[in-house]
């Protein structure tokens, strides 16, 4: 059909259903053909019982010939809709002996099933196919794995179950929108990624899966960002007057990227490279290779093959070979990029949540000797509002406010609070922790307060807990019913021993004897089951794990989850699980000289002293990292910001270094600002830094 034959009128009605609605998601595309004085919904046409596609795809309307459409309209005009009681019911139920007819929109409203496959059959509300709940499967509520809203685990018209995943449930509307967006090539189970079995079941239950590419594949320039190359000079001192982002091809100001990760760069003039032919690696990649012994092996190989030694007998330093790196570099590059992406995403999300914080101040008086009780009192206070700006005043054991309060008080408070939670009775486990069952804590609603405190810490710039187990995190992100715990999640030695005894059974008789020994425990937990084969022990172990790690602590978990909803943290966690996993399940990244060097923005009273000051500062960081100073990198960060780690949300304001004509370094007099003296020699600079940091931290 020629495009000039298409024309839109003012809300024309479909010739089959007589409705003017234009809703492609519900009724398919509505098109008007001025030449034939014809308007029709695509789904009305597909589902009509008396018409078939007898033409090619470009003939008539999607292969339906115009004369055939008119004949179908005439046939339908004699049939009455069993729902709206009006003429024009072109669709009939295909169930044997059923004579119901209806319009397509009426059928949708009455919850009929339309199968967009094979003969395009339709079933009325009485004969439509239904999904069956497997015997023994518990009912209750679950999460739609698309919209993450709760859904009743009962097969209904508007609620569908995945045929391939036991705990995957969906809203019909969510599935239909996803199918229209993903198309036949990308529409899959959101949990296990199954395609064939999942699509067959969804087609049977009336989900339309269009034969098209995914909508995101059709967007113009959808992947343009992937074509962008890194263009920034990361050298310690950039010599380019036009800035770090300036790059001029075929000159000393062209930016060379790290050959391993590609996510760091340097101007040729800002690096030790002598020619463009040399390969360059960033500091992080070089440190990885150095620790793995890669360079040592390369030097041995180079010495054996070429024996390139100068007159003094020293091994000549050569540029890296031109050939691409093998698996160590590529693997490091992949993980490094993933980690940076996830942490950057988490930081951006938390900054977005921080926009809720207003300027009204809430002051908490915190006793260092009893951090938990004073924090609990503050968080439960009548005037406490998590959306207010927080100000922390520390008190000593005599309840007198400290005379000296520095800008890192809030960071220190949240850090002490997270450390207390880690060792509290609310959690169990060694390094990766799950929720414990503390009846007194449940009675006092402490699990809710713990979740609330963690949420407030993340949004207000504090540290993350960093000790969540994967199982606990997955329960929060995907729902406990979709998580399978492991033996590593069991902190109780008696339960772990019971599991080990069951798993180590080598014969059925031995297994039944073990069950008899554990009869009381298995009865109380509801895990007792008859053992008919040796393989039944695996199911029993799984039942014990689910009970002990998940079902046993459902009450604390629900309270904890409600607390994490504070300031919208839980909602973002469920929407961006990978980003939040990187900060909740892992300790903060260990500081390095490069990380601190990149963290601080450098200011100087004059350009003449800038280069020397930068060299002294970076040299000091390298010495501290190498153990050539009494201070540590964490001490430097505490001295400058009041916290020993970089919070997930980042610092506000961003940390800075100011070189000034002062006698000794001054840390955190202004928020996150490190004021350093201008000295003649590096030794003077290092001695002053060591003295100031050690004196301040000791004080």
From TrEMBL:
The record places domain PHD-type at 11-128
What GO cellular-component annotations does this UniProt entry give? nucleus
Q: In which pathway does it act?
A: Protein modification; protein ubiquitination
Q: Which UniProt keywords apply?
A: Metal-binding, Nucleus, Transferase, Ubl conjugation pathway, Zinc, Zinc-finger
Q: Where in the cell is it found?
A: Nucleus
Gene Ontology MF, one = zinc ion binding
Q: SMART domains of this UniProt entry? A: HECTc, PHD
Q: Could you tell me which species this protein originates from?
A: Pelodiscus sinensis (Chinese softshell turtle)
Q: What is its main location?
A: nucleus
CDD domains linked to this entry = ePHD_PHF7_G2E3_like, PHD_PHF7_G2E3_like
Cited InterPro entries: EPHD, HECT_dom, Hect_E3_ubiquitin_ligase, PHD-type_Zinc_Finger, PHD_PHF7/G2E3-like, PHF7/G2E3_ePHD, Znf_FYVE_PHD, Znf_PHD
The gene designation is G2E3
Q: Supply the name of the protein.
A: G2/M-phase specific E3 ubiquitin protein ligase
């Amino acid at each position: 059909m020629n495009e000039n034959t298409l024309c839109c009128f003012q809300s024309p009605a479909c010739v089959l259903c007589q409705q003017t609605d234009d809703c492609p998601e519900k009724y398919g595309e509505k098109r008007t053909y001025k030449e034939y004085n014809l308007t029709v919904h695509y789904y009305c046409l597909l589902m009509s019982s008396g018409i078939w596609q007898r033409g090619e795809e470009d003939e008539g309307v999607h292969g339906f010939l115009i004369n055939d459409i008119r004949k179908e309209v005439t046939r339908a005009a004699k049939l009455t809709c069993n729902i709206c009681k009006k003429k024009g019911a072109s669709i009939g139920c295909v169930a044997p002996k059923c004579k119901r007819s209806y319009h397509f929109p009426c059928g949708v409203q009455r919850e009929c099933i339309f199968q967009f496959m094979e003969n395009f059959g339709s079933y009325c509300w009485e004969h439509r196919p239904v999904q069956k709940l497997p015997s023994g499967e518990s009912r209750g509520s679950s999460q739609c794995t698309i919209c993450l809203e709760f859904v009743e685990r009962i097969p209904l018209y508007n609620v569908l179950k995945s045929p391939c995943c036991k705990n995957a449930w969906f809203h019909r509307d969510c599935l239909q929108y996803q199918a229209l967006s993903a198309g036949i090539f990308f529409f899959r189970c959101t949990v296990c990624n199954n395609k064939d079995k999942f699509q067959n079941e969804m087609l049977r239950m009336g989900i339309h899966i269009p034969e098209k590419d995914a909508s995101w594949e059709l967007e113009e320039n959808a992947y343009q960002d992937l074509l962008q190359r890194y263009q920034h000079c990361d050298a310690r001192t950039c010599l380019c007057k036009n800035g770090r982002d300036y790059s001029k091809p075929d000159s000393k100001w062209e930016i060379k990227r790290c050959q391993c990760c590609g996510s760091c760069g340097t101007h040729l003039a800002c690096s030790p490279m002598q020619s463009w032919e040399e390969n360059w690696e960033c500091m992080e990649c070089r440190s990885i290779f150095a620790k793995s012994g890669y360079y040592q092996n390369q030097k041995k190989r180079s010495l054996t093959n070429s024996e390139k030694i100068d007159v003094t007998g020293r091994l000549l330093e050569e540029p890296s070979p031109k050939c691409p790196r093998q698996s160590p570099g590529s693997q490091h590059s992949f993980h490094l990029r993933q980690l940076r992406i996830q942490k950057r995403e988490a930081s951006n999300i938390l900054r977005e949540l921080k926009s809720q914080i207003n300027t009204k101040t809430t002051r908490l008086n915190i006793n260092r000797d009893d951090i938990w009780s004073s924090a609990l009192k503050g968080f439960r206070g009548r005037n406490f509002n998590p959306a207010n700006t927080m100000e922390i005043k520390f008190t000593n054991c005599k309840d007198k406010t400290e005379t000296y309060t520095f800008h890192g008080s809030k960071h220190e408070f949240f850090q002490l609070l997270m450390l207390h939670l880690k060792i509290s009775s609310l959690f169990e486990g060694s390094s990766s922790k799950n929720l414990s069952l503390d009846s007194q804590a449940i009675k006092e609603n402490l699990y809710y307060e713990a979740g609330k405190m963690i949420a407030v810490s993340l949004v207000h710039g504090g540290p993350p807990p960093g000790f969540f187990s994967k199982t606990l995190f997955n329960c929060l992100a995907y729902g406990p019913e979709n998580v399978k715990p492991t033996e590593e999640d069991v902190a109780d030695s008696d339960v772990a021993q019971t599991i080990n005894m069951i798993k180590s059974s080598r014969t059925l008789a031995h297994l039944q004897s073990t069950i008899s020994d554990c009869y009381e425990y298995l009865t109380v937990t509801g895990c007792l089951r008859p053992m008919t084969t040796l393989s039944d022990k695996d199911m029993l172990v799984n039942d014990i794990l689910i009970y002990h790690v998940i079902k046993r602590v459902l009450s604390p978990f629900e309270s904890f989850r409600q607390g994490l909803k504070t300031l919208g943290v839980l909602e973002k966690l469920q929407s961006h699980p990978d980003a939040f996993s990187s900060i909740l399940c892992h300790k903060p990244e260990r500081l390095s000289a490069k990380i601190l060097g990149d963290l601080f923005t450098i200011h100087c009273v004059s350009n003449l002293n800038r280069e020397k000051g930068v060299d002294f500062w970076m040299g000091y960081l390298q010495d501290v990292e190498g153990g050539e100073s009494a201070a540590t990198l964490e001490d430097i960060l505490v001295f400058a910001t009041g916290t020993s780690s970089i919070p997930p949300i980042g610092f506000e304001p961003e940390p800075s270094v100011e070189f000034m004509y002062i006698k000794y370094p001054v840390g955190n007099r202004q928020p996150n600002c490190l004021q350093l003296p201008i000295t003649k020699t590096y030794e003077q600079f290092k001695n002053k830094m060591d003295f100031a940091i050690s004196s301040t931290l000791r004080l």
